[in-house]
Amino acid sequence: QVQVVESGGGLVQAGGSLKLSCAASGPTFSIYAMGWFRQAPGKEREFVAAISRNGGNTDYADSVKGRYIISRDSAKNTVYLQMNSLKPEDTAVYYCAFDTTRGSYYYAPRTPREYEHWGQGTQVTVSS
Fold this sequence. Notes:
A hairpin with a 6-residue loop joins strand 5 (46-51) and strand 6 (58-60). Helices cover 0% and strands 46% of the residues. The chain is globular. It is built from no helices and eleven strands. The chain has 128 residues and is an all-beta fold. The strands form two sheets. Strands 2, 4, 5, 6, 9, 10 and 11 form a seven-stranded mixed beta sheet that branches. Strands 1-3-8-7 form a four-stranded antiparallel beta sheet, with no helix packed on it.
């Protein structure tokens, strides 16, 4: 059973920064794409960012482009999300997700169904 553990959430003032981390552990497996999603109260879960297995392809939601940076350390099965210039509308529970079945080194999908393993979520609150 793959275990996924997130860390790094918290409370920050508008304009500040936070860095989220997410690490996977468990039986032998290969992680391909890694992604971040978020869900604000009363809203559906939405795509934030994704990175391909080889790290060469990244994708961002328009709402975070230019402010967030996704990166990965494949040797550590870890994905990061550096969040800068945070806004109150960024407040949400952030979830990381891993794809372990599609086998692509270049794919960075946006849809939740493309990911099999999910973290428990970490709260990010941005005060105005």
